[in-house]
Design brief:
Aminopeptidase, 6 helices
Length: about 180
């Protein structure tokens, strides 16, 4: 499944697009935010702009090429300013898991909600039938964004190992893309 063919996706005042070298400074800075560190459960403990550029050229490029991983940017539709990241991972035959985080300045404007809705259409167009999501049970903002986008709580709370290697108390959600409205 090639997610890149449907990019960029747009919803409201944000686009979901490929992550690029020009996003490296803002991405690295965003990962230092307390909320991202607490709830993002990112695979690396620390990101520098060079780490991000290296990932764009290597792991992210390979994942986009083979359909196994899509690390994307949520960006302002007018200025193209990096607002956060949205990721499809754990790709299986007709489903994948989605995760997202925002920079502090992007919060409160609906960027996560719009980014997730844009990604739903891109994923459906790429042939995915379901998206899964997990969020820290204490992350009320993420839970609200998922529910607003039509995700249904399916499990939890229960402890799971996150990509960061930490054990996290999570809620699990699912969203069918089969009859996604335009």
């Amino acid at each position: 499944m090639r997610i890149t063919e449907g990019l960029p996706g747009r919803e409201g005042d944000v686009t979901v697009r490929r992550l690029g070298h020009h996003d490296a400074e803002a991405f690295a800075a965003g990962t230092k935010d307390e909320a991202v560190q607490r709830y993002g459960h990112l695979p690396l403990a620390e990101y520098s702009p060079q780490t991000v550029r290296d990932q764009v050229d290597n792991e992210i490029a390979r994942g986009l090429d083979d359909g196994s991983l899509a690390v994307l940017a949520i960006a302002d539709a007018d200025s193209d300013e990096f607002l956060g990241s949205i990721v499809l991972f754990d790709v299986r035959s007709d489903r994948a898991e989605v995760g997202f985080w925002l920079t502090p300045q992007a919060r409160g404007r609906g960027a996560a909600r719009h980014g997730l809705r844009a990604l739903l259409r891109v994923a459906a167009d790429a042939g995915f039938r379901y998206l899964d999501a997990r969020t820290d049970s204490a992350n009320d903002g993420s839970r609200r964004v998922l529910e607003d986008a039509g995700f249904v709580h399916t499990e939890g709370p229960h402890d799971e190992l996150a990509p960061s290697g930490e054990v996290v108390n999570v809620l699990t959600f699912e969203r069918s893309l089969v009859e996604l409205p335009n």
